[in-house]
Amino acid sequence: MRIATWNINSIRARHDRVLAWLERSDVDVLAIQETKIDDARFPVESFERLGYRVAHHGTNQWNGVAIASRVGLDDVQVGVPDLPAFGEDPAVEARSLGALCGGVRVWSLYVPNGRAVDDPHYHYKLHWLAVLRDYAAKQLADEPHLPMLLCGDFNIAPTDDDIWSVEYYQGSTHVTGPERQAFANLTDAGFTDVVRPFHPGPGVYTYWDYTRLSFPKRRGMRIDFALASPALAARVTDAQIDREERKGKGSSDHAPVIVEFKDA
DNA sequence: ATGGTGGTTCGACCA
């Protein structure tokens, strides 16, 4: 089974590219982030035409997450329970969606961007990650052999190997101690980064800023991850970061990340 | 191989 995660940065701007990628990528499950659309306008039919069922969670033009699957889509969960709300008129943003796909509990996650160190969004991000960690740890405590994948855009570069320049990111978000600790708390809870062993750093990235010719200059960050529970991590046979998809006009600023699993 | 960002409620905000 092949499971991918991809921040597409708008389904409307990326519709044809996402569907073309899905058609040739041979993935069984695609966890999508930043659809930037509400549920009513998400193009479900486009995915169904390719043989995928799809669940989407989006409330407006921001955030939005989805899971497309051709190996079953059951027990859909809109949102990790108890995630914090944000804003002047506080609302829980559309940043997490879970479903059971081919026996794997898949979560499509779009971790908040902290914007700046000590910005309210930064504290919201850390709180959000702590709630996610507690939820994931509880799931594993209740069911130690659960095949579960936490995948998506974490907006954290866990080590200096995951950024093109330590100096460039000095004083900015994604690399601070508390963010890296929040990420480590997830891996310490038993969720392993299953891509890293196949693509050791430094220099391996999943995101490149649109500005400053970042992509051709290979100036990126590794912030998109697939974190597998112990039972699922034991089944990993390969992983890829589809850097090719970042090329050309009209690409997302993130590349798809794909993991292959052998049958249980 | 890339092209001086690009996405969103059209224009200030988000990443």
Automatic annotation (TrEMBL):
Q: Where are the transmembrane segments?
A: none
Q: Which residues participate directly in catalysis?
A: Y110, D153 (proton donor/acceptor), H254 (proton acceptor)
Q: Which region is the signal sequence?
A: none
Domain of life, per UniProt, equals Bacteria
Q: Which co-factor is required?
A: Mg(2+); Mn(2+)
Q: Where is this site: Important for catalytic activity?
A: D224
GO terms for MF: double-stranded DNA 3'-5' DNA exonuclease activity; metal ion binding
Site annotation Interaction with DNA substrate: residues: H254
Q: Where does Mg(2+) bind?
A: N7, E34, D153, N155, D253, H254
**One GO BP annotation here?**
DNA repair
Family, per entry: Belongs to the DNA repair enzymes AP/ExoA family.
> What PANTHER family does the annotation carry?
EXODEOXYRIBONUCLEASE III (PTHR43250)
Q: What is this protein called?
A: Exodeoxyribonuclease III Xth
In its UniProt entry, the species of origin is given as Nakamurella multipartita (strain ATCC 700099 / DSM 44233 / CIP 104796 / JCM 9543 / NBRC 105858 / Y-104) (Microsphaera multipartita)
> What broad taxonomic lineage does this protein's source fall under?
Bacteria, Bacillati, Actinomycetota, Actinomycetes, Nakamurellales
